[in-house]
Specification:
Blueprint: H1 2-8, H2 11-14, H3 16-35, H4 37-43, E1 84-89, H5 96-110, E2 115-119, H6 144-156, E3 171-178, H7 191-201, E4 210-214, H8 216-250, H9 253-277, H10 283-313, H11 318-345, H12 353-381, H13 397-400, H14 402-414, H15 416-434, H16 452-464, E5 468-476, H17 482-501, E6 506-510, H18 512-517, H19 525-529, H20 537-543, E7 544-545, E8 550-557, H21 562-581, E9 586-592, H22 593-626, H23 630-635, H24 637-653, H25 660-688, H26 694-723, H27 729-759
Antiparallel strand pairs: 1-3, 1-4, 2-3, 5-8, 5-9, 6-8, 7-8
Helix pairs in contact: 1-11, 3-9, 3-12, 5-7, 8-9, 8-26, 9-10, 9-12, 10-11, 10-12, 10-25, 10-26, 11-12, 11-22, 11-25, 14-26, 14-27, 15-24, 15-27, 17-21, 21-22, 22-25, 24-25, 24-27, 25-26, 25-27, 26-27
């Protein structure tokens, strides 16, 4: 196959004008994707309008009533969907000076042009059956006994306690909606509104209050700002470190520049082509795909450059050295791209559209990465740029010490059976530990812990049972006996309340059942439901719309992750199914951002993990077919899975979980591990044709590719280590897993792969 491949790719060097034309054509097409993709696709009659459902970063309930379900001409009292939530901490709310201070602060905030309105405890109607709308927070002149009574009333009000005021009465929420016509600076959403409140508080020197700003807008802005700042900063540092390490190892700036051109072109082409599909907003494609393409192109580029420099050092001219380099390394580069593309193409079988599109683009990306390597590097090396690339070859640290490093291979070959047993057993042990990992996802992980929204969210979890809200929606069929339906609805709401109250992680469920229970008196459901008309319309209509035959139960959820809440939501779902089975004509559904994340992000992680296993199986079959050896295919499994098992064990022992970022890191690292293994096996198969001595073939294979293996590992580990200094948790996890996986992949290729090849060596074919 190597001979046929070299003949098929000889045109890359022999017909440089055609290769140059292909590079220019791909670049122009990519530029069109950056400049005006819609115009080009429209001219070609291609439809690319894709509406992807992406993981929301909204902390509030996303199941607000639609227009068709909103009660007519009644202003309801929402507890979610606000732009900003100000968390106020103080022990003086129900004091003369404290009540005056908080009222003054709210009035001052509402006087700002950019504030549309603020909903807080003082605007909630009281549950007074006589229709007297008493303020829940007394005026300054009230007696201390009046304040104590008001505090007790607030804690007994179901829509205030746990929704706008904490159980102990020391944490108060101000729900703010903004008028975006007057917002000219994003800092208003966090520091601006907090500083406005603090300035007004300064007029009340005897009152102690602390303000923390969170909510969907501050959370999103902080996450985006942190992501962009860290991404730009630490990617620049990482790329700089990679270039510096490459210059040290290659001992030649021209060689480094040529190698760097391949991943640059690969990423440039890939992202340009993706824009034609309208998928650039997919978070996996936007963040993970460029890294995957760059790593695959870089590792293959280093292998090809090392081989071309070796050929130049032996006396071949630039054109001949480029041709010989493609002949000897091109097949391995093609196999790495093929296995990576086919393996990650298995993502197309996933249930979630985000993951499927990511799989398609992975196939696209690694294909373009292969073209960038076999086109750009031989082209540059066959021109005047490649005249001096061999200078410094053999003088680098790795080159000078490759014979010493090969001593590790000699030691392994002395005890191949023992080392093989160690490799197999250790991989099984590490794999079993990795199986303890469970899918998880937390919104707070997107923010550095020191940021204000992150601190406020933690306080909300403790004081209010969480900021995020979920809901249970009950619907029923039309029925002439409205009173009977209402009585049955009350019974259902009572059972749901008992179900939710039994869950310790569910905070403050509220529905018309809780509102009715707060009214004076007691009695059977028929008696209680008759008091519906005594409730203030704004309260009643917030959770009950008889015109549309809809009722809602809302409850708070802490930001503890879907791994923690998964069993809770499952029990709630099972419980509602049991309840509804006893009531014909009724239906229930769970909704809200936490439920969405449980159903969708959990599935995304499971899809990625499944595709990872599928990729490993596909890679095994491809290598077995390419090398025409089932033995080689089986042998390739261990060095490819060993580094993934090491990374998985690292996650398990450090208390981490299977998150989107960790599985994406597995995806990228599998591509690198397969890359190194294929280069080693390809050279081993070639050397095996020249000698019947198995040990000699293994030694020569390592001597040929060992330099490139070690160089790529050193460069990538140094690059990953710099990113571990990032403030973003996702960056640190990705970088630590990358460094561990790349380093352990080199260990597997130097220790376990030679041992297994020697132990399970087959007879040389005639």
């Amino acid at each position: 196959m190597s001979t046929r491949f070299s003949l098929a790719t000889s045109w890359i060097v022999d017909r440089r004008w055609l290769s140059s034309l292909l590079v220019v054509a791909l670049s122009l097409i990519a530029i069109g994707g950056y400049v005006a993709p819609e115009k080009i696709t429209r001219a070609l009659g291609i439809t690319t309008d894709r509406s992807l459902e992406t993981p929301t970063d909204d902390l509030d309930d996303t199941s607000e009533d639609s227009d068709s379900e909103r009660p007519p001409e009644v202003e309801t009292i929402p507890t979610s969907g606000f732009d900003v939530v100000i968390v106020v901490e103080s022990e003086q709310f129900f004091t003369s000076q404290g009540s005056e201070a908080i009222r003054s602060i709210v009035q001052n905030l509402e006087a700002q042009d950019y504030v549309d309105n603020i909903l807080w405890m003082d605007k909630i109607p009281s549950l007074n059956i006589f229709g007297l709308n008493e303020p829940l927070l007394p005026n300054r002149e009230a007696a201390p006994e009046r304040f104590a009574k008001s505090k007790q009333n607030a804690r007994e009000h179901p829509l205030i306690n746990g929704q706008f005021l904490s159980d102990d009465g020391n944490t108060l929420l101000l729900m703010v909606r903004f008028n975006y016509l007057f917002v000219d600076d994003e800092s208003i959403f966090i520091s601006g509104i907090r500083e406005t409140a603090e300035q007004e508080l300064a007029n009340h020197p005897n009152v102690d209050m602390d303000f923390f700003v969170t909510g969907r807008v501050p959370f999103r802005l902080t996450a985006q700002s942190s992501q962009q700042d860290n991404q730009l900063k630490y990617q620049s540092i990482a790329y700089g470190m990679i270039i510096l390490m490459s210059m040290v190892l290659f001992r030649g700036i021209v060689a480094v520049g040529i190698v760097a051109a391949a991943p640059f072109l690969g990423v440039f082409w890939t992202l340009g082509f993706v824009r034609y599909l309208g998928l650039q907003m997919n978070p996996f494609i936007d963040v993970v795909l460029p890294i995957l393409v760059a790593l695959v192109a870089f590792t293959d580029g280093v292998h090809l450059m090392v081989q071309i420099r070796h050929e130049r050092a032996t006396g071949l001219k630039g054109l001949d050295a480029a041709r010989e380099g493609v002949r000897k390394v091109g097949l391995a580069c093609f196999l790495t791209s093929l296995t990576t593309a086919v393996g990650f193409g298995s993502l197309a079988l996933a249930n979630h559209e985000l993951v499927r599109d990511f799989g398609y683009c992975c196939v696209f990306g690694v294909g373009l990465a292969f073209l960038s390597v076999v086109l750009a590097i031989p082209l540059a090396c066959s021109t005047w740029l490649g005249q001096r690339i061999h200078i410094g070859y053999g003088k680098g640290y790795v080159d000078r010490n490759i014979n010493r490093i090969s001593g590790i291979v000699d030691i392994v070959l002395r005890y191949p059976r023992r080392m093989s047993a160690v490799g197999i057993v250790s991989s099984l042990v590490l794999f079993s530990i990795s199986l303890t990992l469970r899918p998880d996802d937390r919104l707070g992980d997107l923010l550095p812990t020191y940021t204000e929204p992150a601190i406020a969210n933690q306080k909300m979890d403790v004081a209010m049972g969480g900021l995020s809200q979920a809901s249970i929606t009950i619907k029923w069929d039309s029925n002439d006996d409205e009173q009977a339906k209402n009585i049955e609805l009350f019974q259902i709401l009572q059972e749901i309340d008992e179900l939710l109250t039994a869950e310790k992680l569910i905070g403050h469920p509220i529905s018309i059942y809780n509102l009715l229970e707060a009214l004076p008196g007691s009695g059977p459901p028929a008696t209680r439901i008759s008091m519906l008309d005594l409730l203030p319309p704004s309260l009643k209509r917030s959770y009950y719309t008889p015109e549309n035959r809809v009722a809602q139960v809302k409850f708070r959820v802490q930001d503890l992750g879907i791994a923690t809440y998964g069993p809770v939501f499952q029990r709630i779902q099972d419980g509602t199914n049991r309840i509804i089975s006893n009531h014909s004509g009724f239906s229930m559904s769970l909704g809200g951002a936490p439920i969405w994340r449980w159903e969708n992000i959990y599935q995304i992680v499971v899809d990625l993990v499944t595709s990872l296993g599928t990729a490993a199986i596909i890679i095994f079959f491809i290598l077995a077919c390419v090398y025409r050896s089932l033995r080689i295919g089986i042998i390739s499994i261990l060095p490819n899975l060993f580094p993934l098992c090491v990374a998985g064990t690292y996650l398990a022992l450090t208390g981490q979980a299977l998150e989107i970022v960790t599985v994406c890191a597995f995806t990228c690292c599998l591509g690198i591990a397969v890359d190194d293994t294929i280069h080693f096996l390809t050279r081993y198969v070639e050397e095996k044709k020249e000698t019947s001595d198995e040990s000699e073939a293994i030694r020569k294979a390592f001597t040929s590719v060992g330099t490139a293996l070690i160089m790529t590992t050193l460069v990538l580990v140094c690059g990953f280590m710099t990113v571990m200094l990032s403030e973003a948790r996702e960056h640190r996890i990705f970088a630590s897993m990358g460094a561990i996986t790349v380093a352990s992949a080199l260990f597997g290729d130097l220790v376990f792969l030679p041992a297994i090849l020697k132990t399970f060596s087959g007879k040389k074919r005639a």
